[in-house]
Write a structure and sequence with these properties.
about 110 residues
């Protein structure tokens, strides 16, 4: 399910992917949980019945599907300190690559 969320974000834009990864990193560092977490089955049902094109911007600027995606990502939390450290290192590397890609694309556009 986590991979599905990230694939949707990547299809949207590199910027959206980097933002998702940074939020995940923050959530892991702060050990945040999502309130009123729906069941994994309910989240899967929502993924199966919607596409990224169905998501509309809300008054806060976020897409309507974003909350569901954040809840799905919250289901997969590291269970040990080793897993936490491994994931944070991985996220740091991927975020860095995403930022490099964004910078490269910005330079090409000018």
């Amino acid at each position: 399910m986590v991979v599905a969320v990230l694939q949707r974000r990547l299809a949207s834009s590199t910027y959206a992917m980097v933002q998702s990864l940074e939020r995940r990193r923050k959530r892991i560092l702060n050990a945040e949980t999502v309130e009123n977490q729906p069941s994994p089955e309910r989240l899967l049902e929502q993924f199966d019945t919607t596409t990224a094109d169905d998501s509309e911007p809300t008054e806060t600027g976020a897409e309507s599907q974003e909350r569901v995606e954040e809840q799905a990502l919250a289901l997969a939390q590291p269970q040990t300190e080793k897993q936490r450290g491994d994931e944070l290192r991985y996220l740091d590397g991927i975020i860095s690559k995403g930022m490099t890609s964004l910078a490269r694309n910005a330079k090409q556009n000018f």
